[in-house]
Structure formats: C-alpha cells, structure tokens
Write a structure and sequence with these properties.
Length: about 260
C-alpha cells in the first residue's frame, strides 16, 4: 500500500502543473485544426522594413490536449535583404503520410500554432544572424531523425529545435520546461551539451536526466517532464506551467 501511495503522490506532483493550466483556462481544448487560427501575430520583424538578417526561435502551446503538457517550437531565418522568412520545424503528421518530418520552407514565422499565439524565445540580428544562418541550415540538414517522430518522449519538434540550439550555441537557446522532447539527445550518447550551449546535460532517452547550464539553470527530468530552478534570474520551472519568477530577457545579439 505504501508503494502505491508513493506512486500516486509522485504522479500527482508530475500532473499538478498541467492540471492547473486546464483549471485556469490557459489551454484551448476542443480546437478543430482545420479551422483553428493560423494568422500572423505581428511579432516578427517586417522584412519590407527590416533589411538586416534576422533569426528567431518561437514556442507556442501545442494543439488541444497536447497543450496541457507541451509547447511546439520552431526556428525562422531571414538573410540580409531577403523578402521573407524560411521556417524550420518538425511536424509529426507528415510521418503518417510517409513524408520526412523536417520542413524548411518559406512561411510566415509568427503565425499562431492552431489557435495558440507564439512567443519569441531566442533572437539574433544583423551580423550575428548572418553568421548563424548557414550553421542553422547545416544543423537542420544534420538532424538525425528526419523520418522519425514520437510524441513522447521524443524525438519530436522540440528535439529538433534543441538539436539546432546545440549546433548553434550563439542562439543561447533556453527552451521552456514545457518543451517536452528537448531532453531527447541526438548524438547517440547519454551526455551532450545543453540546448543553450552554456552547460551540459545527462539524459536517458529523454525520460530521466539532469541539466546544469548558465542559461537554463538546473533542471531535473522525470518521465519527460522537467522541474527546474534558475538561480541567476530567480525562478522555478514546472511541468505544464513553465517559468514562475523573475522574467527573463530574450537573448539578442545585434552585431
């Protein structure tokens, strides 16, 4: 009985955050993907007036019940003088149609993700973006799971974004704890750099692990869900909820 009680308490801790998001009405349940909002939100620099190179990483709550637990993440790039953006992401439904799950295509970068508005989680501008874009494109080509997608614990869209972050550490990419799949390592080892490139993490197939980095702080991964603490910018990070505490500025390099 004690064992079952402890298991119940453990599951309760893991699910407390996701259930809180439902109770607070933060998650849009019952969305029909065919009619869900995919309009631009206006947070991406307009390429008609912003001629410098731009790189941005985005996160938005996943559609329907998935959004209780996780976000979907992607990266957008615009070279200097370009008239539009290329969006790099992994989309799971493509696997069921025998298509590669990785997409790099011209698109509007700041569109809502099926009813959920995105936020910018990393940005580069100017010369820093110009230097990073070829490396981002190379990282996209080197992603080892082009034909694989597993909703939990990975590899999925957040595994892809974390992979790009590790390959291009100047992004200083701090993925939220709600980016389930970010801890599924892509180098075939149990140890890899943190997605921000400012530390290291140990992970067993994205199911169990620990991360310590200047950018992310300290995180513990249990069954794909992450708990964390940021000491430099005091905050706690919880499954389903994300960051609670001092707000964190988006890293932006302009030269």
């Amino acid at each position: 009985m004690k064992l079952f009680k402890r298991i119940g308490m453990f599951l309760g801790v893991l699910l407390a955050g996701p259930l809180l998001m439902v109770a607070c009405g933060k998650i849009n349940l019952g969305q029909d993907w065919r009619t869900a909002d995919r309009s631009p939100t206006g947070i991406a620099p307009d390429p008609d007036t912003t001629r410098e190179a731009v790189v941005q990483a985005y996160a938005a709550r996943a559609i329907n019940w998935r959004g209780i637990f996780a976000v979907h993440t992607w990266i957008a790039t615009k070279p200097e003088g370009a008239d539009g953006y290329t969006v790099h992401q992994v989309v799971g439904w493509r696997k069921w149609h025998n298509l590669p799950v990785v997409i790099s295509a011209p698109d509007t970068p700041d569109r809502s993700w099926f009813g959920n508005a995105p936020v910018v989680i990393a940005e580069l501008r100017g010369d820093a973006a110009t230097r990073a874009i070829p490396r981002i494109e190379q990282a996209v080509r080197n992603y080892p799971y082009e034909w694989e997608y597993v909703l939990w614990p990975g590899p999925n869209s957040n595994t892809f974004t974390a992979h790009v972050g590790r390959e291009v550490p100047e992004l200083a990419l701090d993925l939220p704890t709600t980016a389930i799949g970010k801890d599924f390592l892509t180098n075939g080892s149990l140890v890899e750099s943190a997605p921000s490139g400012t530390g290291i993490q140990l992970s067993w197939y994205g199911m169990l692990g620990v991360l310590a980095a200047r950018q992310e702080g300290l995180e513990l991964n249990l069954l794909g869900m992450s708990f964390g603490i940021d000491v430099l910018r005091p905050a706690i990070k919880l499954p389903g909820v994300g960051r609670l505490g001092m707000s964190k500025p988006i890293p932006s390099q302009l030269n």
